[in-house]
C-alpha cells in the first residue's frame, strides 16, 4: 500500500491496465478444465496434461503481453522471440483441441469452441498490440481463418468448424481491440506526463530568455558606445590632444551607468511582485488543470515593497512545488493581515502519503526561510489532513497593522 501511494498517476494507470490484462490470462486454465471435463470426463491422463499445458500457455501469454506493452510505449524493441513462441503454441494447440472432440458430437461444440476461442484470443491479442494496426489486423484475421482448413483436415464437421470459426473471430476481435485501446491509454498517459514536464522546462527557459533579452537591451548600446569612445580616445591620445581625457571620462561615466542599469535589471529579476506572482501562479496552475482560488486582504497593495517581494517568492516557490511534487487538483492561497503580521497560507491536495523520490537536494524552501528570517518572519510546513499540504509564511509588519477583512478574488 505504501508503494502504491508513492507512485504517480502515470504509474498507477499503467499498473491498473497491465494487471487487468494479466488477470484475464488466468481464465485460460479454467476454460481448459471445463473443456476437458466436458469432452473426456473420465480421462485420468488428459486432465492433468491439459491443465499443465494451459497454465504454461497462460504464463507464456502474460510474458508476451508484458514485452509487447514495453514495446508499444517505446521502452524496448519488438519482442519477436516471444511472439514466435506464442504462435508455435497456438499452432500446436488448436489441432489438438479439434481432434479431442469427435466430429459427430455436436453437443460438445460449446466446450470445444470456448476452449479454442480463448486460446486463440489470448495468443493473438499480444500480436495485435506489438504490430502496427494494419499488420495486426491482417495477422489476426489470417490466424483465425486458418481454423477452417485445420478443422476440415482434422475431421471436424462443417457446421462445427463454422461455429468454432465464428465464435473465435468475434471474441478475438473484441479482446484484441480492448487490449490495443488499453495499451494506447497507457502510452497517452505517459506522453501527457512528459508534456507536462516539458511545459515546466519551457517556462524556465522562457524566463531565462526574457532576462537575457533585458540584459542585452541594457548593455548592448552602452558597450557599443564605450567601444567607440575608447577608440576615439586612443586616436586623440596619439595626437596629443587634450580631448582624450574628456572622452575617457565619458567612458567612465557610461561604465558606471551600465553598472547601475545592470543592478536594476538583476534587482527587478530577483524581486517578486506579490500580485504579479499571484496572477502567474493562477495561470500556471490552471494550465496544469489545478483549480486555484485566492483570498487577499484589500490593502495588500500598501504593503512595503520588501514584504511584497518576499511573499511573492513564497507564492512562486509553493506553486513550483505543487506542480513538481503533488498530483493536486485544488490549491488555495490566502493572505491575512492581522495582529501586526502578514500571514500567507498556501494549501493543496493530491500529496502522496509517501514522498516521491527526490532527484536533487532542493534549496527552495531553505532559501525562503532565509529571506523570511532576515525580516523576522518564519516558514512552516505541515499536513492538515490525508493527502493535503499547507505552507504558512508569517512576516511581521513594521507599522503594526490591525485586523482587516478579506476580499475574495476568484481564479
From TrEMBL:
Q: Where is the Histidine kinase/HSP90-like ATPase domain?
A: 311-397
Superkingdom assignment: Bacteria
Keyword Transmembrane listed: yes
Pfam families documented for this protein: HATPase_c, HisKA_3
Annotated Signal transduction histidine kinase subgroup 3 dimerisation and phosphoacceptor domain ranges read 207-273
How far does the signal peptide extend, from start to end residue?
Answer: none
What this protein is called in its record is: Histidine kinase
Amino acid at each position: 500500500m505504501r508503494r502504491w501511494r508513492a507512485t504517480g498517476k502515470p504509474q498507477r494507470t499503467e499498473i491498473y491496465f497491465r494487471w487487468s490484462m494479466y488477470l484475464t490470462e488466468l481464465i485460460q486454465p479454467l476454460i481448459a478444465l471445463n473443456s476437458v471435463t466436458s469432452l473426456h470426463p473420465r480421462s485420468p491422463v488428459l486432465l492433468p496434461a491439459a491443465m499443465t499445458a494451459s497454465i504454461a500457455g497462460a504464463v507464456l501469454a502474460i510474458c508476451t503481453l508484458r514485452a509487447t506493452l514495453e514495446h508499444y510505449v517505446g521502452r524496448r524493441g519488438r519482442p519477436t522471440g516471444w511472439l514466435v513462441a506464442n504462435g508455435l503454441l497456438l499452432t500446436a494447440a488448436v489441432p489438438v483441441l479439434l481432434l479431442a472432440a469427435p466430429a459427430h458430437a455436436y453437443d460438445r461444440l460449446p466446450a470445444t469452441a470456448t476452449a479454442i476461442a480463448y486460446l486463440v484470443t489470448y495468443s493473438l491479442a499480444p500480436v495485435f498490440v506489438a504490430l502496427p494496426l494494419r499488420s495486426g489486423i491482417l495477422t489476426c484475421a489470417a490466424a483465425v481463418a486458418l481454423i477452417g482448413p485445420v478443422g476440415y483436415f482434422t475431421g471436424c464437421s462443417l457446421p462445427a468448424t463454422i461455429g468454432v470459426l465464428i465464435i473465435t473471430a468475434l471474441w478475438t476481435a473484441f479482446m484484441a481491440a480492448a487490449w490495443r485501446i488499453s495499451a494506447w491509454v497507457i502510452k497517452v498517459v505517459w506522453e501527457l506526463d512528459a508534456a507536462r514536464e516539458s511545459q515546466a522546462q519551457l517556462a524556465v527557459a522562457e524566463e531565462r530568455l526574457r532576462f537575457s533579452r533585458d540584459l542585452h537591451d541594457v548593455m548592448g548600446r552602452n558597450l557599443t558606445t564605450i567601444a567607440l569612445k575608447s577608440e576615439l580616445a586612443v586616436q586623440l591620445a596619439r595626437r596629443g590632444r587634450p580631448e582624450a581625457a574628456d572622452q575617457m571620462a565619458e567612458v567612465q561615466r557610461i561604465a558606471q551607468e551600465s553598472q547601475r542599469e545592470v543592478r536594476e535589471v538583476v534587482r527587478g529579476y530577483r524581486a517578486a511582485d506579490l500580485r504579479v506572482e499571484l496572477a502567474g501562479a493562477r495561470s500556471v496552475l490552471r494550465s496544469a488543470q489545478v483549480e486555484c482560488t485566492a483570498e487577499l486582504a484589500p490593502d495588500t497593495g500598501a504593503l512595503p515593497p520588501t514584504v511584497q517581494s518576499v511573499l511573492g517568492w513564497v507564492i512562486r516557490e509553493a506553486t513550483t512545488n505543487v506542480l513538481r511534487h503533488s498530483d493536486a487538483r485544488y490549491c488555495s492561497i490566502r493572505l491575512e493581515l492581522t495582529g501586526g503580521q502578514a500571514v500567507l497560507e498556501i494549501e493543496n491536495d493530491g500529496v502522496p502519503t509517501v514522498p516521491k523520490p527526490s532527484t536533487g537536494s532542493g534549496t527552495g524552501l531553505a532559501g525562503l526561510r532565509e529571506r523570511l528570517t532576515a525580516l523576522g518572519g518564519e516558514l512552516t510546513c505541515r499536513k492538515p489532513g490525508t493527502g493535503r499540504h499547507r505552507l504558512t509564511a508569517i512576516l511581521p509588519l513594521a507599522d503594526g497593522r490591525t485586523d482587516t477583512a478579506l476580499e475574495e478574488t476568484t481564479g
